């Protein structure tokens, strides 16, 4: 016991020094008594987690220190690219990394930068096991009780954290989402654990489905989420003809305030599909798909189905990524056309090209009965933009601009195609295009342009509107799109 207490005390002290001196907090670390207690509790829980596997105090202490150091390094690296510290919801995405390594800046497991440290760590752990004696009791019964008791205790804590009475206590420690303040107040490990418990506890009921005004909606409503899309002129790129189309043909266009920079597509996607601001999601705002799993009564797809629309989700990537297939079915999409349907589609770089995706979208609209609500997510311009992605183009920004030109061509083709189809069928149609977030490029740092992308709303089959610029948040765009399903007004505007 003495050895355990000494090793634990030293490990917690080193972890505290690491966070105070080189941690990822943007303000000074708090050492107030309660904050310090929560901070140390976070370290202790990490230490106990590792201790249950070895029952070697010094090994567990060292592993705890290494874990905290890794969390700090990863969090600082993430902040430099995305502008946020490490989140509890990031760990829910870990299974995606080995399945889709091309989507991340992390090298594959067989890369020497990963494989060598992993092998050295395993070798050092084996050596340490042979050197440090276990503190497990020698007697059989106490040994069995210890081996079963500590894992059971930790498991019970995990199960109890989202439930009363422990959940009420955690809610007092973390009353509302304030990530930067909480990382400075109680440290990264305690914030990760506390926010996980609060997110699992839920407590933020979804709103009732809005009552849409009477009257028929547009015959076809198409919403296209453009991967990493901003006006390339904002990065010093060439003029994109599609942006001139926004300004001259769209009923409404402008800058779209989105909930994240460089990643977290699901936040913008959720905001537009539900019309819910992130503030209404509580601790689920950081990954609304994990917290609510698509249970959204305000989803545009649900509202459309209730109005008799066919609902289609179109995305040329794997069904399991972000659990999109399950989420979109819960959102109310009856039909999903995803990665397997694009096996023969032309690629531009590693992903299905936007121009080819636009052609498939128009084919789906032509082939399906109306009324139809279609939500499409593009993939061509997904990062990271690394050497070897495009022949003869290794500069990240040059790669991005090459892809965004194709995105512009797709938008031009969609506007022309839907306009012609609306005239041919004598139907009314709405097309909405928007960027999910700005790209994570060296020239596009967190906070770039006030964390805005571009959006536009086009209307076909009726008298042309005078284009107007209205800068709005992503959730307001989702509420505005309800007008296309209800068509109670001659104008698509922000509905609260």
Rounded to the nearest angstrom, the radius of gyration is 26 Å
Low-confidence stretches: 488-496
The end-to-end span amounts to: 61 Å
Work out the number of β strands: 11
Instruction: Classify the oligomer.
Output: single chain
Q: Please tell me what the overall shape is.
A: elongated
| Average pLDDT figure | 92
Report the major sheet: 9 strands, mixed
Query: What is the helical fraction, as a range of percent?
Result: 40-55%
Helix tally equals 17
Order of helices and strands: HHHHHHHHHEHEHHHEHEEEHEHEEEEH
Strand content: 5-15%
Quickly give the structural class.
alpha/beta
Subcellular location: Cell membrane
Organism: Methylobacterium tardum
InterPro entries: Alkaline_phosphatase_core_sf (IPR017850), OpgB/LTA_synthase_biosynth (IPR050448), Sulfatase_N (IPR000917)
Main location: membrane
Structure overview:
Strands 1, 2, 3, 4, 7, 8, 9, 10 and 11 form a nine-stranded mixed β-sheet that branches. This protein has a two-stranded antiparallel ribbon with strand order 5-6. Helix 2 (about 35-55) packs across helix 3 (about 55-80). The radius of gyration is 26 Å and the shape is elongated. The longest helix is centred in the last third of the chain and has 30 residues, at about 395-425. It has about 500 residues and is α/β, with parallel strands linked by helices. It has helices at about 1-20, 35-55, 55-80, 95-100, 110-130, 140-160, 165-175, 180-185, 190-200, 240-250, 265-275, 290, 300-305, 325-330, 355-365, 395-425, 475-485, and strands at about 220-225, 250-255, 310-315, 335, 345-350, 350, 370-375, 430-435, 450-460, 470, 470-475. The termini are far apart. It is a multi-pass membrane protein. Pfam families: Sulfatase (PF00884).
């Amino acid at each position: 016991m003495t050895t355990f207490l000494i090793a634990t005390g030293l490990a917690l002290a080193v972890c505290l020094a690491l966070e105070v001196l080189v941690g990822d907090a943007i303000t000074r670390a708090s050492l107030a008594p309660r904050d310090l207690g929560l901070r140390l509790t976070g370290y202790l829980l990490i230490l106990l987690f590792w201790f249950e596997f070895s029952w070697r105090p010094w090994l567990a202490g060292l592993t705890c220190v290494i874990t905290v150091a890794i969390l700090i390094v990863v969090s600082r690296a993430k902040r430099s690219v995305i502008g946020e510290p490490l989140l509890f919801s990031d760990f829910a995405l870990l299974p995606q990394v080995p399945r889709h390594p091309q989507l991340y800046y992390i090298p594959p497991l067989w890369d020497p930068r990963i494989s060598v440290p992993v092998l050295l760590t395993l070798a050092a752990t084996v050596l340490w096991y042979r050197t440090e004696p276990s503190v497990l009791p020698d007697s059989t019964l106490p040994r069995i009780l210890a081996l079963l008791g500590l894992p059971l205790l930790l498991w019970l804590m995990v199960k109890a954290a989202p439930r009363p009475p422990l959940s009420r206590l955690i809610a007092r420690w973390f009353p509302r989402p304030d990530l930067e303040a909480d990382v400075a107040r109680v440290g990264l490990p305690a914030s990760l654990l506390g926010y996980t418990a609060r997110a699992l506890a839920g407590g933020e009921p979804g709103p009732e489905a809005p009552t849409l005004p009477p009257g028929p909606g547009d015959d076809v409503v198409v919403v296209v989420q453009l991967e990493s899309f901003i006006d390339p002129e904002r990065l010093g790129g060439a003029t994109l003809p599609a942006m001139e189309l926004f300004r001259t043909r769209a009923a409404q266009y402008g800058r779209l305030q989105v909930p994240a920079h460089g990643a977290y597509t699901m936040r913008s996607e959720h905001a537009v599909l539900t019309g819910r601001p992130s503030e209404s999601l509580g601790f689920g705002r950081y990954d609304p798909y994990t917290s609510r799993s698509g249970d959204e009564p305000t989803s545009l797809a649900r509202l459309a189905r209730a109005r008799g629309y066919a609902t289609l989700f179109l995305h040329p990537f794997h069904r399991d990524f972000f659990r999109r297939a399950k989420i979109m079915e819960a959102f109310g999409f009856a039909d999903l056309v995803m990665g397997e349907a694009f096996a023969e589609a032309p690629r531009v770089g590693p992903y299905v090209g936007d121009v080819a995706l636009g052609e498939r979208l128009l084919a789906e609209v032509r082939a399906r009965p109306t009324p139809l609500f279609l939500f499409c997510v593009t993939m061509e311009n997904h990062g990271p933009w690394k050497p070897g992605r495009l022949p003869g183009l290794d500069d990240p920004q040059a790669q991005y601009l090459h892809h965004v030109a194709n995105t512009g061509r797709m938008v031009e083709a969609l506007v022309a195609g839907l306009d012609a189809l609306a005239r041919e069928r004598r139907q009314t149609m709405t097309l909405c295009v928007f960027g999910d977030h700005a790209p994570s490029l060296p020239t596009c740092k967190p906070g770039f342009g006030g964390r805005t992308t571009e959006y536009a709303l086009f209307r076909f089959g009726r008298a042309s509107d005078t284009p107007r610029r209205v800068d709005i948040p992503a959730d307001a765009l989702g509420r505005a799109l309800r007008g296309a399903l209800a068509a109670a007004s001659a104008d698509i505007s922000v509905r609260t």
